[in-house]
Amino acid sequence: MSLIEASGLCKTYQAGDIAVKAINEVNFNIDVGSFVSFVGPSGSGKSTLLNMIGCLDSPSCGELHVAGTDVSSLDQKQAAIFRGENIGFVFQDFNLIPVLSVYENVEYPLIMVQNWPAAKRRKQVMELLDAVGMKEQADKLPSQLSGGQKQRVAIARALVTNAKLVLADEPTANLDSVTAHRVIELMKSMREKFNTTFIFSTHDPKIMAEAEVTYTLVDGSIENKEEVAS
Ligand code: ADP
Ligand code: MG
């Protein structure tokens, strides 16, 4: 079953008089529960594509369906609700809130979006912290964690609302290669555990090989699709 269907999808940015074609009529389908990467050099369109899938930016042309919803038809408020209900985000620079503890960072999306009762929230947050191996660090502040630990917390935060889809834009760019592999492995094991679809982007050749399906972006076009038997 497809979670994401893109056909003839494009994005053009206007930079002064010049129109920049960041994404140029791409077509792809991503299945529920798959582990997918978009790879390509800086400027190839990875962030633009992930931002459209994540309803942070809207397409200039073509069609994009995420979880059965035509996301290009959503207004800003509807897009925010759709994101809250369906999508978790992991960022290159972790984006943890410095004044909140590990526990509070993971709890934050539940308070902001879903308004869960306190006891249910606590159970969910602790389950996720346990799943990413950060239960013992629940009371620490982000500044007391290593980069790899911060990204573990960010992965727990992305999953805490039971997101169907996690989008990770260059999640390993600020990590050493050993830690980068561990973070990808953790995302893979979370996929197994929760059947969440994971899409990450990278320009690191060592990390690309970790995905089951790898799309190579060049100048906004998909040049190649590679599938590895799982
Ligand atoms: P990547 O994430 O692969 O580095 P991006 O998606 O950020 O690539 O950028 C793709 C292209 O779109 C680049 O040429 C970039 O300069 C351009 N671009 C991205 N965002 C904007 C914007 N807000 N305004 C104008 N041009 C943009
Ligand atoms: Mg980018």
List the helices and strands and how they pair.
Blueprint (H helix, E strand, L loop, with lengths): L1 E14 L2 E14 L3 E5 L6 H8 L7 E6 L2 E2 L5 H11 E4 L11 H13 L3 H14 L15 H13 L5 E5 L7 H18 L2 E6 L2 H4 L4 E6 L2 E7 L3
Helix pairs in contact: 3-4, 3-5, 4-5, 5-6
The site of adenosine-5'-diphosphate has 12 residues, from strand 1, strand 2 and helix 1.
Offer a few descriptive terms.
7 helices, 6-stranded mixed beta sheet, binds adenosine-5'-diphosphate, binds magnesium ion, alpha/beta, Rossmann fold
What does this structure look like?
The chain is 35% helix and 30% strand. With 230 residues, it is an alpha/beta fold. It has one domain: P-loop containing nucleotide triphosphate hydrolases (Rossmann fold). The strands form two sheets. It has a six-stranded mixed β-sheet with strand order 6-7-8-3-9-10, sandwiched between helices. β4 (61-66) and β5 (69-70) form a beta hairpin. α3 (102-114) runs parallel beside α5 (147-159) and α4 (118-131) packs across α5. The longest helix has 18 residues, at 177-194. The protein is globular and about 50 Å long. The two termini are 17 Å apart. Bound molecules: adenosine-5'-diphosphate and magnesium ion (MG). Residues 13, 15, 20, 22, 40, 42-48 line the site of adenosine-5'-diphosphate.
Q: Spell out which ligands are present.
A: adenosine-5'-diphosphate, magnesium ion
Label the structural class: alpha/beta
Assigned CATH superfamily: P-loop containing nucleotide triphosphate hydrolases
Question: How would a crystallographer describe the biggest sheet?
Answer: 6 strands, mixed
Q: Detail the poorly predicted runs.
A: none
Radius of gyration: 17 Å
Based on DSSP secondary structure assignment, what is the total number of beta strands? 10
The CATH class label is Alpha Beta
Number of helical regions: 7
Instruction: Report how far the terminal alpha carbons are from each other.
Output: 17 Å
**Which CATH architecture?**
3-Layer(aba) Sandwich
Task: Please bin the fraction of helical residues.
Answer: 25-40%
The protein's oligomeric status is: single chain
